[in-house]
Specification:
It is a single chain. The protein is an alpha/beta fold. The protein folds into 2 domains: about 240 residues, Alpha-Beta Barrel (TIM Barrel), CATH 3.20.20.60; about 45 residues, no CATH class. Helix content is about 45%, strand content about 10%. The chain has 12 helices and 8 strands. Strands 1-8-7-6-5-4-3-2 form an 8-stranded parallel β-sheet. α2 runs parallel beside α4 and α5 packs across α6. The chain starts with 13 loop residues before the first helix and ends in an 8-residue tail after the last helix.
Amino acid sequence: MPYLIAEDLPEAPAGRRFRAALARPGILRMPGAHNGQAALQAKAAGFEALYLSGAAMTASMGLPDLGIITVDEVAFFIRQIARATGLPLLVDGDTGYGEALNVMHMVRVFEEAGAGAVHLEDQLLPKKCGHLNDKKLALASDMAAKVAAAARARRHLVIVARTDAAASEGIEGAVARAKLYVEAGADAIFPEALTSVEMFKEVRARLPGVRLLANMTEFGRTPALTAQEFQDLGYDMIIWPVSSLRVANKAQEKLYATLARDGATTAMLPEMQSRAELYATIGLDAFESLDASIARSILPA
């Protein structure tokens, strides 16, 4: 059914629904959804929570992931996914778009847009993808201040603190930062760009009782592991941040090459979502039924 039908809208705030999903047995699996259509397809596949990646958002806009986009641009993506699916959504908050007051503004905007959780990272601008080199880290105390600001500003939003320290400060530095961020109010920790199973094990062992998120991005530094393998390592959440965008982009690249070569899309028809499949995904029939059920206004004489 379309999201605008009131009785189908979730009653509980997104943050509470995210916490409920996290409390269920097993690792919380969150595929990346870079727009409302991808989110609907992920929901149809059975996923109960989603992830919105900064890298996927910027790439879909034709931009690199360097902290360029704004809070309001991200809110546009949040709204379309939250409205389309009603699923709790973890959102990439980059570095918080500034210092403590900017972080508080971000939290309030994201909550109003429908986010259930956000993660903040301890890089300095221009920030980079966590799996690239030469990342510059903020002071741990400055990041902790941002986490505290986020926790103070939220109503229900789950706060995840990401640390990129493993690459330059090792596990010692990453764990020390994580403990500080939890003390500041983080609900979970996202240790980014760990490069071995042993590193994942060590972080888990040294942060007992702390919720942990694993990032299973393709073409990165982290070894390819399944959701079950991360669950067995003691991790609570897993994201596949840019997978949907990578697949969509590769398909589009093939389409344009075929069209340029053939002057027609005929060869690509077997690989296309049909009109019927598209309409079923976006709920065209339900929208039309809703439209037909609304009585036409009659103006007074």
